[in-house]
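The instructor's notes for this session suggest beginning with a concrete chain rather than abstract definitions. Hand out the sequence below and ask the class to guess, before any prediction is shown, which regions might be ordered.
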Amino acid sequence: MTGPPPPARPGTAGDGGGDGRDDADVIAQSLDEPELFAGLYDRHAPDIHRYAARRLGEGAADDITAETFLIAFRTRGRYDTAHRMARPWLYGIAANLIGKHRRTEVRALKALARTGHDPVAASWSDRSDDRIAVQAPLAGALAALSPGDRHVLLLVAWADLGYQEVAEALRIPLGTVRSRLNRARRKVREALSTDPAFVSAEQELTPSWTK
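After discussion, reveal the predicted structure:
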């Protein structure tokens, strides 16, 4: 078997969502019963896809999600089952893959900052609470961040990972997460505060993760 099984149908053995098994159990048992890995896909693929789409657009998100779970399936034998939830592991794989597209991401952010519209970034506005993401000043601020700082900031802001989960995902010390996040927040906050149009028109939308 070269790839992960397709998503399981609800109620099947691979569902992994209603039988009390946590992620670590599913991964461990999938070593003998590969079809069980579909339960992990069912649990986490929608979130991984959503995150990848906000970073690179819907088109790239399909490939990022598929490759994330392919890599996870192939390397599941090395998974540390002391970590009962696999979200940081999966987001770490996805972040690494997204990092390979950093030029595409930065190019899209810069285009959005310059023109106010970009086909890639347009996918960010799929929900009303995401409206801030399509604002040109924020796009420019994100584009100016280093890849490491941008990964940390967006894993917290868009993937809703805690500091320890980000450390696990990126395999960096917790102190590094804190320093990168503080630096990224400061730079974004400074960039937004210097744009009069943003401050006057979008004050109520200032993202809480820049505070």
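Then share the key points. Residues 69 and 75 are 10 Å apart (CA to CA). The chain is about 60% helix and 0% strand.
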